[in-house]
Amino acid sequence: MTTFVTRAPQETRGSWKTYLGLVLVLVFSAFPVYWMFVIATSTDAAVSQIPPSVIPGGELMNNLREVFTMNEVYFTASLINSFIVSSVITLSTLFFCSLAGFAFAKLHFPARNALMFVVILTLTVPNQLGVVALYILMGKLGWNGTLLAVIAPGLVSAFGVFYMRQFIAHAVPDELVEAARIDGAMTLRVYWSIVLPAIRPALAVLGLLTFVMAWNDFQWPLITLNGTEFPTSMVALSDLASGNYVIYRRVLAGAFVATVPLIVLLLLGGRQIVRGIMEGAVKS
């Protein structure tokens, strides 16, 4: 009898050129954020200084005080609004997109492929084409000028449905779903007990992408919240940059504050993705 011995895959390490390239890419990618921090901590003279200043100053607290005490902008309220909008949109997208992805991947119903084709087709339509119709619809509902008008269009996304459908189709075996049905589990029980634990990595990725996109959204909040006292953070930043004379240290100080939550989220999210992969792995 022949015995086959399988060896565990050995860890491969890149050469010094690979690490040097990664370091250069990291430096070039992070420099704009660093320079934003430098200007946010400096005076007005540092903006026009040649060569540009690369050493942080000591005016960060003064610049932040100006940003948060401007009565025309209400920056604190805008950050709270952005957090509310982004959190609600992210949670709703994770729930509805994973539920729809499960239906398209594992359930059999009439016109399933045709409906999935329509969902994919909506990805080719630019969002700008629907702004007028969306504004009219929100006006008829009486939501223009409120956070409901910002939240409602983002409760579910076509990309999220497609992404979850593709992930569930490969991550959840059909035999596992059939075994759960034989044991008497209903559809929602299969979704909650079988599908969700297996798609944690995809939920983490989709949640990060959705939160970042909702936080950075500018066009639609600017349109529907135009003239309101408490906009989102991106609209508040545009208000800081408006006027005949722009104080860039103030604008970049506000941009730095609005960027910090995203940086923290991405740093924490990377660990969550790895943890979700380990917990959601299928062991044989």
Summarize the structure.
The protein is mainly alpha-helical and 284 residues long. The chain is 68% helix and 0% strand. The protein has 13 helices and no strands.
Distance between the termini: 25 Å
The counted number of beta strands is 0
How is the quaternary structure best described?
A: single chain
Helix/strand structural class: mainly alpha
Beta percentage is under 5%
Helix and strand string, N-terminal first? HHHHHHHHHHHHH
What's the CATH architecture name of the largest domain?
A: Orthogonal Bundle
The CATH class of the largest domain is Mainly Alpha
- Range of helix content: 55-70%
Number of domains: 2
CATH homologous superfamily descriptor of the largest domain: MetI-like
Question: How would you describe the shape?
Answer: globular
Query: Radius of gyration in whole Å, from Cα?
Result: 24 Å
- Mean pLDDT over all positions: 85
Give structural notes.
By secondary structure, the chain is mainly α. It folds into 2 domains: 17-58, no CATH class; 61-280, Orthogonal Bundle (MetI-like fold), CATH 1.10.3720. The protein contains 13 helices and no strands. Helix 12 (233-240) packs antiparallel against helix 13. The protein is globular and about 70 Å long. Residues 279-284 have low confidence and may be disordered.
